[in-house]
User: Fold this.
Amino acid sequence: MASHIVGYPRMGPKRELKFALESFWDGKSSAEDLEKVATDLRSSIWKQMSEAGIKYIPSNTFSYYDQVLDTTAMLGAVPERYSWTGGEIGLSTYFSMARGNATVPAMEMTKWFDTNYHFIVPELGPSTKFTYASHKAVSEYKEAKALGIDTVPVLVGPVSYLLLSKPAKGVEKSFSLLSLLGSILPIYKEVVAELKAAGASWIQLDEPTLVKDLDAHELAAFSSAYAELESSFSGLNVLIETYFADIPAESYKTLTSLSGVTAYGFDLIRGAKTLDLIRSSFPSGKYLFAGVVDGRNIWADDLAASLSTLHSLEAVAGKDKLVVSTSCSLMHTAVDLVNETKLDDEIKSWLAFAAQKVVEVNALAKALAGQKDEVYFAANAAAQASRRSSPRVTNEEVQKAAAALRGSDHRRSTTVSARLDAQQKKLNLPVLPTTTIGSFPQTVELRRVRREYKAKKITEDEYISAIKEEISKVVKIQEELDIDVLVHGEPERNDMVEYFGEQLSGFAFTANGWVQSYGSRCVKPPIIYGDVSRPNPMTVFWSKMAQSMTPRPMKGMLTGPVTILNWSFVRNDQPRFETCYQIALAIKKEVEDLEAAGIQVIQIDEAALREGLPLRKSEHAFYLDWAVHSFRITNCGVQDTTQIHTHMCYSNFNDIIHSIIDMDADVITIENSRSDEKLLSVFREGVKYGAGIGPGVYDIHSPRIPSTEEIADRVEKMLAVLDTNILWVNPDCGLKTRKYTEVKPALTNMVSATKLIRTQL
Ligand code: GLN
Ligand code: ZN
Assistant:
């Protein structure tokens, strides 16, 4: 009876680690206090898995910040600027790399594959010196052993580690990161040897880059790395774990012929085609770790379906070599359903968070071994049936409307240049119009008002008048600054997805469904469980009120369907695009109501469109097609004179520029200032862009106030590649996290710079 968990959330059921970390960083508690919280969390996780009956329990999946940074520490690959002098890497060097310190900035952070988790990108070069400088994997193994639990230590595999790295500053672009394999493998060997000496009989190496599109050279690196490690693996069972997508056939071949490896783990949720590869050939005598329980969602597993998949795999791998597992680490799902006291019982019965998934994995393993818990399986089947037939899930009207969308393109009937002309006649904006992205600083007072209203401590009238006052303050500030297209500041919103989710049907919200995003930061995605509809207008009341306060155009502010989808836990009982189309229809209604209420400029944020891009290139076109289509659905019905804006907060979009043009928005505001003008290079290289565009002129992620000259300089650079009549001037993103003492001078300088340039045109 064999069960395995790829990895487990570190934060704790009530975000204990977050609070311990932040208190330590603030100097309010000691390193010992932090270590105590961490030790307690680890031991409770191990005990929980052990008590559930899990055979292969992971260790070293805990981290104070990030598992890739842990690997950097293990390899001693500390960039020079942190002045590390050798020896075991302590908390201070570790957190300096993660977060920067008074004198040195942090290392770069980037998204972990297509998840919302961010890792710290290793910076490597020919002069990087590697030494074994963090014994964390071994000490965690021993720590669990001391509790009587024999675990499987988990390491980020050497090839994925290098493929996820970037060349350090000053290192030539042509430098091959993979050329460092020979330097890091000796350290992996040392770690493996110590683990063996400590009693480990299994080890797990995560090599998720195997699911990406790799070239022959990269695949060859896997073969040579594992050939090199083979001797150190003797006497150990070695599991190579892959996850997040189908594994390409070539990579599957490479993986299953790696030397010294005895077990392979696959994501059978996102990698449905991988099943065919496994069925068509699986090396004899090797273990198959079948990831059938979804690590990236919150739905209870369909145990009967998983069991039948597993039965079919028994024939492939052999009964004694099949291990039931999760599709990936459970760190990408919420922690424990037990803490959800506000969700109703019916919805709760459809869900499984990490703690419940551990139990599911074990139940499946027991069932395979002939000890099926009939009561548990029956309860699961009943919950699955209730979810399939619940009237709360199905809304026939919505389904019909969404089905009717296919086959049509949903394009506005005139070209963007004709529309911009029509809009300009009405809006009469100066050249280089100025605007902001939507939110204004969210003060403590504002959060208190929202909280008290939610808790019914203040009346609706009191709430409305407080928000109204805030909007009027924000409007006045913008008029004084002489900004051209205003925003209401979004004071009524706590989060750009939650705010809409709470007003749409088909959404549920958790109290503690946190998922780690980076470091101590967690997000709490809404759960989309049913067909989505919009019973009532969501933003019209506030937008209308804001517009009535000023003669200048006031932007209506909405979150787009793709972003709502990508930042939620979505249904697994229908394709993602269907859910997206339903949300698009709901937003479409809102757009039309705003237009009818006299709002002439409507911004539909698609902050997360890029991050939903599938890992495999072969799947990009399909995703982009329905994502862009969903956006167009929201606004294809408005008049030419209504100006549709969209906003995206990332600049790395050169590869999807044609899809962005195909969204056919009238104006796009986009992050730009942190990217060394990578964005502008697209236009320099000849991509034709005829719609309005506002590449951010300063970075709102930093408290720094940009000078007038600096902004003017940026705008001039933009004018060198973009036509004067399409350029907008705006910050990179919303101002929510900034203080007024930063926002006012920064926007003052932005407007002055714009006026200065206008006089020179
Ligand atoms: N309108 C939102 C804001 O200004 C956009 C936020 C975002 O793009 N992440 O806060
Ligand atoms: Zn943004």
